[in-house]
C-alpha cells in the first residue's frame, strides 16, 4: 500500500472517533515511520508495510488517547513521557505554571512542594525556569512517581526535584514557600468522554463525590503547615464553594483565575502571617 492509500484508509477508520481524522492519521503514520509529517506529502507514492500502523489506528479508533499510543505528550516548551496510569498534562495547567512562576520570581522563593506530580509536568517546567529552585513533589500512586522520575532524569533535574510517595503533604516536613497542585477535582458521577474515563487514571481525575473534597483538604493542610502561598487548578464550577470555604479557614486573600475559554480554572491563596 502507498502512503497516500494508507492515509486514506486510516482517515476512514478514524472518522467516528476523532475530531480531525486526517490529521491524526498523519500523526500516527509519521510516528510509525519515524518521519516528519511533511515526509508523507512529499513521498505519497512510496510503498509501505502497514501491519503495525493498522494496530496503532485501531487503538486510536477505540478512543485511546494519541499521547498514550506514542508514549509522549507535548506540554509547555517540552515533551514528556506518559503512559496509562499517568494523567496526560493539559494545556490549561500551563496557566497555573505561569502564575506560580510570577510568585516565585517576585518573592524569590527557593523551596516549593507539589502535590500530585503526575508526569512531572509542573515541577519539571518550573525547575527548568528556575535553576535554583528545589521542589519536593508527592503522589499517592506508583506509576506517576515512576514516570515523573523518568522525565526528571531525562532533563537532568534530579538535584532540583525530589519525589516522595505521600498522601497530600503527609511526608513533607520541610518548610516551603509555596505549594502548587493540580489535584483530582472532578465529581465522581460526572460524565467524561471515553478517551478520558476509559484510559486515564481515576486517582488523577476524581476528587470525591462532590469533586472539591481533596482541594479543601489541601487548603487546610497547607495552612496547617505554615506555608505562605498555595496555587491550585480547580473545576470550572468550584469558585463559589471554595470562596465560601476559605472564609471559614481564614486567608489573607484568594484570587481566582480563568482559562483561555474564560472559565474559572484555579486560584492562588496567600495565608495570613505565614512564611
Ligand atoms: C490531575 S493529576 C495532575 C498531574 C500533574 N501534576 C499534571 O498537572 O499534569 C493529579 C495527580 O494527583 C495524584 N493524587 C491523587 N490524590 C492524591 C493525594 N491524596 N495525595 C497526593 N497525590 C494525589 C494522582 O495520582 C495524580 O497523579
Task: Specify the CATH architecture of the largest domain.
Answer: 3-Layer(aba) Sandwich
Number of domains: 2
Number of helices: 12
Mean pLDDT value: 96
Strands side by side in the biggest sheet: 5-4-3-6-9-11-10
Number of beta-strand segments? 11
Structural class: alpha/beta
- As a whole number of angstroms, the C-alpha radius of gyration is 21 Å
Organism: uncultured Sulfurovum sp
Keywords: Methyltransferase, S-adenosyl-L-methionine, Transferase
Catalytic activity: L-glutaminyl-[peptide chain release factor] + S-adenosyl-L-methionine = N(5)-methyl-L-glutaminyl-[peptide chain release factor] + S-adenosyl-L-homocysteine + H(+)
Pfam family, one: MTS
Could you please describe the fold and organization of this structure?
This protein has two domains: about 5-60; about 85-270, Rossmann fold. It starts with a helix and ends in a 5-residue tail after the last strand. Helix 1 (about 5-15) crosses helix 2 (about 20-35), helix 2 runs antiparallel to helix 4 (about 50-60) and helix 6 (about 95-105) runs parallel beside helix 7 (about 120-130). The strands form three sheets. The protein has a seven-stranded mixed beta sheet with strand order 5-4-3-6-9-11-10, with helices on both faces. A two-stranded antiparallel ribbon has the order 1-2. It contains twelve helices and eleven strands. It is elongated. With about 280 residues, it is an alpha/beta fold. Helix 7 (about 120-130) links the parallel strand 3 and strand 4. The chain is about 40% helix and about 20% strand. Bound molecules: S-adenosylmethionine (SAM). S-adenosylmethionine binds near residues 87, 116, 119 and 167. It is an enzyme of class 2 (transferase). InterPro entries: DNA_methylase_N6_adenine_CS, HemK-like, N5-glutamine_MTase, PrmC_N, RF_methyltr_PrmC, SAM-dependent_MTases_sf, Small_mtfrase_dom.
